[in-house]
Amino acid sequence: MRNLTKLSLVALALILAACSSSPLSGARGGAFGANDGSVNDPTSVAYFNQNIGDRVLFEVNQSTVNDAGRLVLAQQAAWLNSNPAFTILIEGHADEQGTRAYNLALGDRRATAARDYLVSQGVASSRLSTVTYGKERPIEICSQEACYSQNRRAVTVLTGGANS
Amino acid sequence: MKMRLIARTLILALTLGPLNLTTAQAQTGPLRIEVTDGVIEPLPIAVPTFVAENAAAAQLAEEISRVVVADLVGSGLFREIPREAHIAKITSFDAAVRYADWKAINAQGLVTGAVSVQGKRVIVKFRLFDVFSDKPLGDGLQFTGSTDAWRRMAHKVSDAAYGRITGEGPYFDSRVVFVSESGPKDLRQKRLAIMDYDGANVQYLTDSTSIVLGPRFSPTGDRVLYTSYESGSPRIYALDVASASRRVLNNQAATLSFSPRFGPDGDAVVFSLAKAGNTDIYTMSVRGGAQTRLTSSPSIDTDPSYSPDGSQIVFESDRSGNQQIYVMPAGGGEPKRISFGAGRYGTPVWSPRGDYIAFTKQNKGRFHIGVMRVDGSEERLLTSSFLDEGPTWAPNGRVIMFSRETSGATGTSSLYSVDLTGRNLKRVPTPLGASDPAWSPLQK
What we know:
heterodimer, A: 164 residues, four-stranded mixed beta sheet, B: 444 residues, mainly beta, Rossmann fold, Neuraminidase, 2 domains
């Protein structure tokens, strides 16, 4: 029951994040791009972002993928394994409560944790790369835990594929 | 506060380089403020408008004396006695000073000056007087430079006065490289910029197409190391300040590098490199070549800073479970933890004088700038806010500048400075938002 609640919260969070219109990208952090295709096309980036979920969230100062995150990453891996034309960049991010360089290192840890999980699920490591944005590209901008929890994330960004 | 006297009143006429600045200062033990005492009452000084020795100098004479006042008062150690209160008028630089007139308004220090302009050259003369001893304090000085460097000559005057009265090293003739910020929090535009220590003469060194972070000066102030996302991921660049030309230092695939800082020899660069989820500290030459790994723990090791003699490196690590400060030999080796208080400690920076380490501390949801002795003793927090971060030392090791970010969706970042004693906290003006300041060495 507890897990269910957690999962639905994460799902809600993902929908909220997806609805955010902030033109994120220095980080191409999950905004819909013109080449993302139709959500009705199960091989499109748009479908991946909306139906699989492009991100996992982390606890304060942590880089361990939690249960909810593992579920998302397992689904990402299955999708990536059936859509092998895509290459994958994982962006690690931190909330603003930390010093700049430490947050860069923490973002790197988070991106690597997500990457390692995808590899464990059979995604070829040659398709994967990572980058950290530290606290430079928050997706939510309030200074409260409601926003911080969305900013402590690893985002799976796809390039290549049939639509681009 | 102690007062002593000095007898000589020579004018030193020096002719070096484009800006003729003296280093020949009489060592005096003057009209002294002990900076480390935590001065409560600023010393009253009078700075009459500098005498314009020819018509072309009228405007600069006024502006230079205003900058001298701004420097000295801005240090928090001096209070200006307004010109309206002055009894004596200084109309000739060489006329005898009527001490009684300055005592009558309780001016303890008197700064006089004269300015002349010849074509594109400006000559600034200056004297400092210890009013209550009826004596000049140190030699008169003369600076010559181009008219467009007039602010530097004003800062040199202030540095001489500050140095004689405090016995501390000068710091006004210095610059700050920083990250200029604009735009909303989730799409902040960042550019490298450089300005005088007081916010004047801002120039941009990069455009805003890539995120830039953490600039740091070379020991001679002519080059800057910084982190940029120009290639898509964080990498370290070296930039020549005069030409703004830049080159990447480390292009190794599958690594991210950041947090660079020069060693005191101007060649060694110490930095963080993240590889496979682990961040360690490395060194390399600024000219390129092999990298030497200095730490190899599975923890985050970052924000390294050399001791002024180059023999040690202070850095932060979360090897104990959260961020703490460690010191290790410059060639690597067993680090010794020096921070033990409550909370998390990061961004350690060794003072140019070698006596303190400045840091950022995070505790109970607040951020602080603090200092401690290099063995970790005498920890003292100087500031407290929602987000204070990234201290940098003035060249004399007695003032610290840092970034302060306000909270919330409209939060913005600004630069602030504060004394080593925690006094004189104030905002440093910048045209836009600003973060990651790095103070230059004193200009030559």
